[in-house]
Amino acid sequence: MATSQNSALLPSQAKFELKPPPYPLNALEPHMSQATLEYHWGKHHKTYVENLNKQIVGTELQGLSLEDIVVVSYNKGDVLPSFNNAAQAWNHEFFWESMKPGGGGKPSGELLDLIEKDFGSFDQFVEEFKSAAATQFGSGWAWLAYKASEKDKKLEVIKSVNAVNPLVSDYFPLLTIDVWEHAYYLDFQNRRPDYISTFMEKLVSWEAVSARLEKAKVQAAK
Amino acid sequence: MALRSLALATRKTLTLGLNSTRLSQSRALQTFSLPDLPYDYGALEPAISGEIMQLHHQKHHQTYITNYNKALEQLHDAIQKGDSSTVAKLQSAIKFNGGGHINHSIFWQNLAPIREGGGEPPKGSLGWVIDTNFGSLESLIQNINAEGAALQGSGWVWLGLDKELKKLVIETTANQDPLVTKGPHLVPLLGIDVWEHAYYLQYKNVRPDYLKNIWKVINWKYASEVYEKESA
């Protein structure tokens, strides 16, 4: 994924930009409304980015990539003040890029093979992912992530609370769904399971997920 | 315990609705039902919209009750079977859904329409102890709102009475954790739901505006009653 890059400035000038989703704000209608994108991207995500920039000024975090700031400020669970804003800035950019107009359907190729190997079938993966998203109490995220260790390379479904993401546990995130209420309340109110189903059936960009898997495998081989 | 016919009598109270369902060889399992609101859904406008009140009560609170009852039935079975693994596994569902029922039941009583005293400052002993502990009501509100705004994710901000230390405290809890999880001597006087579902349709991302406006419909009479009872 192309992260929010710091432009070629001195570290003391470096700041993150609010990158727009790779589609117009009304492009996910009727499954995710323009109003939702306007608030979710235009207010929530924007605020995380702005507050992160304010927080890192003059600190040793300024000049690092967003991913590095997330991992460093996670601090093995004893989070530093900038973790929440950094992780949420990262998570939301990753989320917009996990969706596309006309999304949904099934993955193919190597990604599908790996899903079938690690979950039994695509349908079983979908069940597990939907269940994780539905049972994350309160605010958080559900993920498909890739773990490469010496012994094994496999896919896992993970759920996380508030701003936490799998980067901090050395996973390569491949797909996410935001299950904070602000992500679905305007369109679905309390009906989180309906939002999750709509996400899987109409919004997921399997191309993005496959591209991330490719990158993850290359990085894991290093 | 007297035998009851299977045409169950439902007993609703203003605080917690209690049902007695099926008899088994051991004690009947008490389950719960949605308490009625003591005011119409639209009665707290414009501070909190009728749309939010209806969803919050009929959907969110009801779902906590439904899932709490389900978890209690499963727990009941597991206890009878001596299935410790299931007993342990159910704890988080019980805390979450039971806590949701407890917290929302308190919340509906923490609110009142303006014409029924909503927003009227506390008098009597609670008003006095707020001034003593916090300097003024405004200062208390400022503190509660700061804590509520700063809470990450989902949770509640509370004004509580520490019965042991005999003083008022401001506390936050995550998700649906009841106040007592922060200290066994803590009694909730006032809780404000800062889950996004409590304000999103009306206030969107601007939680501080919700916190500013909710004081217009806070029912200090209820908080005073609880304070007087618990500090006696």
TrEMBL record, chain A:
Q: Where is the Manganese/iron superoxide dismutase C-terminal domain?
A: 107-212
InterPro entries in the cross-refs:
Mn/Fe_SOD (IPR001189), Mn/Fe_SOD_BS (IPR019833), Mn/Fe_SOD_C (IPR019832), Mn/Fe_SOD_N (IPR019831), Mn/Fe_SOD_N_sf (IPR036324), SOD_C_sf (IPR036314)
Spell out the SUPFAM superfamilies in the cross-references: Fe,Mn superoxide dismutase (SOD), C-terminal domain, Fe,Mn superoxide dismutase (SOD), N-terminal domain
Catalytic reactions of this protein: 2 superoxide + 2 H(+) = H2O2 + O2
Where is the secretion signal located?
A: none
Q: Domain named Manganese/iron superoxide dismutase N-terminal: which ranges?
A: 15-100
Q: Which UniProt keywords apply?
A: Metal-binding, Oxidoreductase
EC number assigned by the record: 1.15.1.1
Broad EC category: oxidoreductase
Write out the function statement from the record.
Answer: Destroys radicals which are normally produced within the cells and which are toxic to biological systems.
Which family does the similarity line name? Belongs to the iron/manganese superoxide dismutase family.
Q: What is this protein called?
A: Superoxide dismutase
TrEMBL record, chain B:
Q: Name one Pfam family in it.
A: Sod_Fe_C
Where is the protein found, in the record's own terms? Mitochondrion
Question: Which key words are in the record?
Answer: Metal-binding, Mitochondrion, Oxidoreductase
Which Enzyme Commission number(s) are on file for it?
Answer: 1.15.1.1
Its EC top class is: oxidoreductase
Job of this protein: Destroys radicals which are normally produced within the cells and which are toxic to biological systems.
* Superkingdom, natural source: Eukaryota
Name its species: Hibiscus sabdariffa
Catalysed reactions, semicolon-separated: 2 superoxide + 2 H(+) = H2O2 + O2
Report the sequence similarity comment from the record.
Belongs to the iron/manganese superoxide dismutase family.
Residues annotated as domain Manganese/iron superoxide dismutase C-terminal: 123-225
Q: What is this protein called?
A: Superoxide dismutase
For the Manganese/iron superoxide dismutase N-terminal domain, which residue ranges apply?
A: 31-112
